Amino acid sequence: MPNLSEARALYDLPLNTLIFKAQQAHQAQQDPAGIQLCTLKSIKTGACPEDCAYCPQSVHHNTFVEAEALMETETILADARRAKAGGATRFCMGAAWRRVADGKQFDSVLNTVSGVKELGLEVCCTLGMVSEAQAKRLKEAGCDVYNHNLDTSREHYSKIITTRTYDDRLQTLSNVRKAGLEVCSGGIIGMGETVDDRLKMLVELANLDPQPDSVPINALVAVEGTPLAGRRFVDSIEFVRTVAVARILMPKAMVRLSAGRANMSDETQALCYLAGANSIFLGEKLLTTGNPDIEEDMNLMKRLGLHPLHPDEARRVHRGEIEPSAAQPAPWPKVEELVAAQKEGGSCSEGGCGCSA
Ligand code: SAM
Ligand code: DTB
Ligand code: SF4
User: Fold this and answer.
1) Among protein residues, the one whose CA lies closest to atom 25 of ligand 1
2) What is the per-residue burial (b if ≥16 Cβ within 10 Å, else e) of 248-284?
3) Catalytic machinery residues
4) Å from CA of 271 to ligand 3 middle
């Protein structure tokens, strides 16, 4: 059971020793050069009743985000087909909801989940709080993973969100796990929290039994109109240290370099990969804010000698069936197709994928 003082001792190591330890943990448990490529889609945008201080989608803040109703299944599936044709292996759908409500809209999401699963993509949903029964329905529909972040330490939480508690968050994670879904949970760095707050969050995640399967580490994107607007972007070395501690405490997890990459240099991202990050969101948009160009991401991976992670191979590594270094890569994304699909609303040339683009 890792604790704060152990995490702090790691965090304070000379950076080269910390990175060395993170690489040891990484190379023992993960495809050493594999990067998981996920695509993110906001399927219901804005007008969220929660007051998360960082979030441009909260109804409490006046931001550039315009509220949009839940998208139709067919529209989302067209995007998922393009993501698949382009080379993403996981499709994550986010809804700006406080909690899932049973009824027509949830039924529609379940239908969409089944459709995305049939395309052969890993399916992740992030829809706010869910009950165990709802999580089971998601699992039955074909959902693989549920994302629900702790976001910060228990102590810092009430300075960021007042409309729900830390324990609400933990309860949903427990419901998700009991339903047999994989757990994706992480947080945001750069919201005015201390280093110890960041480490407490990582320790809380690392002490979940079992540990989360994925840990997204977001750098705050300080959006105009939110209470956190104007905050300075997190110090890159502090961010890298946090990623390294996450990797050491949770060696089997996908550590996802999530929001904030558009503000990071190639060198900072390279350091994050060295620190054990092995997953990114691919595509010019996250939910509502920007993300690096796909060409830039692929270029950086090639320059660093990294390759797309194959999810099945990663599972075989985690089950101990093959050595980490024996994991075969997934195919490289078809950058032109992904870019064209995103920029022009679709020009997919993948034969037989059924895509209308
Ligand atoms: N409503 C659901 C929820 O809160 O779980 C799902 C969507 S919510 C946007 C998913 C996560 O995005 C949040 O938990 C937070 O970690 C991250 N996020 C939202 N706005 C962000 C921002 N401005 N900068 C960095 N991360 C952000
Ligand atoms: C996560 O931890 N980061 C993603 C995903 N899970 C859903 C979302 C990032 C959102 C950044 C702000 C936006 O684009 O709205
Ligand atoms: Fe709503 Fe999620 Fe944004 Fe919070 S983070 S305001 S719950 S969409």
Assistant:
1) 220
2) bbbbebbbbbbbbbbbbeeebbbbbbbbbbbbbbbbe
3) 48, 52, 55, 92, 124, 184, 256
4) 29
Note whether 53 and 231 are within 8 A (CB). Answer: no
According to the 3-state scheme, what is the secondary structure of 66-85? CCECCCCHHHHHHHHHHHHH
C-beta separation of 246 from 202 below 8 A: yes
**Cα gap 148→169, rounded to integer Å:** 7
Instruction: Establish whether the linkage from the previous residue to 210 is cis, with ω within 30° of 0.
Output: yes
Could you tell me the domains of the chain?
A: 4-297+310-345 (3.20.20.70)
Helix (H) or strand (E) holding 191: none
Only one residue has tokens 């191979």, namely: 313
Q: How far is CA 153 from CA 161, 197, 299, 321, in A?
A: 12, 5, 35, 36
CA distances to 43, 79, 97, 307, 356 from 127, in Å:
10, 18, 6, 30, 27
Q: What is the pLDDT of residues 219-234, one digit of tens each?
A: 999 999 999 998 999 9
Q: What is the pLDDT of residues 93-149, one digit of tens each?
A: 999 999 988 999 999 999 999 999 998 889 999 999 999 999 999 999 999 999 999
